Amino acid sequence: MSTDIRKQLDKLLKRVEKPGRYIGGEVNSVMKDPEMMDVNFCFCFPDIYEIGMSYLGLQILYKVLNDKPGIYCQRAFQPQTDMEELMRKEGMKLYSLEQKTLLRDMDMVGFTLQYEMSFTTVLNMIDLAGIPMFSKDRGEDMPLVIAGGPCAYNPEPLHEFVDCFLIGDGEKLLPEFLELYGNMKKQGASKADFLKEAVKLQGVYVPAFYEVKYNEDGTISELCKLYEGAPDRVKRAILPEIESLPFPTEPIIPMVEAVHDRAVVETFRGCTRGCRFCQAGMIYRPVRERTRKHIVDLALKELDDTGHEELSLLSLSSSDHTEFEELAMELVDCTKARKVSLALPSLRMDKFAFNVLQRIQEFRKSGLTYAPEAGTQRLRDVINKGVTENDIYTSVRQALELGWTHIKLYFMIGLPTETYEDLDGIAQIAYKIRDLNFEINGRKSGRFKLTVSVSNFVPKADTPFQWEAQDTAEDFRLKHNYLNERLRSKHIVFNYHDNETSSFEAVFARGDRKTSRLLYEAWKLGCKLDGWSEHYRPDLWEEAFERSGVDRDFYTTRKRDFDEIFPWDIIDPLVTKDFLRKEAEKAYNAQITHDCRYGCVGCGINREVRCEKGGIYNA
Ligand code: SF4
Q: d(Cα 532, Cα 44) in Å, to the nearest integer?
């Protein structure tokens, strides 16, 4: 089979842009004999090669799986439109990069769900692979389709297309799941028998084992089990520590320049700050750190093995690592000695951060980023963002004195309880920073630039704001215009996010099973790669809403009652709904909850893992 694909591919590659996306054979990609494997699995990233290859999770799971002798993990990405057109014209099906195996000939294909706007691309890849779209239409000769990642915490919009969802940390669950499959395949078990056994593993959700009943108003009345052996709620799989996990110090080196072409080390997982809009801050709890020595060892090994010229750290907030100062200084020294540049994203801008940045950047001072998220202290307290204006001005003053000329500010609009006073607050912060620059550098300091970016609030499942209404597209438009008027200054650049896409994100972030029809109609009309402005087609989405009969407002602008049953209640993220509700009630009173590293605030995670030092678990 793969010889035919190679021949077909040879013909097509001459006619597409960046053929390197489609050929595989990269340094550190793994070659095994599929015939000798217990399980052939394809890791599918529902976006183009350059995006997928920048995703660390792919490299981690690729290593973890391929380290197992009986498992072969290959990769597939969504082809760019020129390639897809040719493939469809020539009748060529989606194949894996490593062995050019057709996805439909694999045992299993697995999608990572990083953002809601990739959902139509999941459908498109299933179709391009020649796999029947709906789970119910796939026989024993077709692969199982599975999915995981942050968007799998509300899996319901994809319930008709994906056979099984894996919720939580994948490093242990996915190999166990595949090994179980391999063993049962040897015994001649059917896919259905396998799924019945698989749900005994923590984190495995099979939508076909549940039925959802609705009230007349469209809300859910009951989540019922159809298979007695399935869990009442699917508990997230969680690793108590990450220090002992294997890490890909020899990652696959992309054939085409990836969005992030650099060595990356994950320093810790989780966050204890408790911002109330942030899903990652809830579903990745508690903080699990790698030790400083281990991080440095991994970084150096990765730089040696790959020849990358840049090193970056990955976590939700770099400076929150308990040994951050020592770690940063050590990495500054190591990277300088190797003439490698160092990126420390999401730094808390205190005195120490400036010292480090001074040493890293010396004369080349790139922009500094601050994310106050809201324009007034009241609203920052509502969202539990522990930043004061004084913190920002002190830090910006220091930055300007040290010679930084570009400051970037990030805000979110449409947050619960927001008023136009909060928008005025955004403008006030911007002008105060501009005036600070005048004070320090004089009015004619032409190089100074302040960028104000606002994104639209999207209420997410498993957050204290999961009950909240989203602003309408018209509300957002008025607020953007309002800010645009107030931020007219030659030193200020104002950017904002597209309103339509925020509304679609919101539909799927809190979508139920009925939204799968919307997704299907949108894909049939030609929607895919919706996260890309050049591919995103609001007209087709409008038509898909009409055809599917899905009422957008029901999912977006409707405020929910605290006792409403949610589609995602079938998944237990381990943080309790009770905790989320208490946080929501505190938000209405602008009451803050402290970072749980200074004392547990009762999120519920410690029913399952040990939280030491207040939310930080060290191996
Ligand atoms: S159980 Fe307590 S310490 Fe652990 S993550 Fe939750 S709030 Fe923080």
A: 18
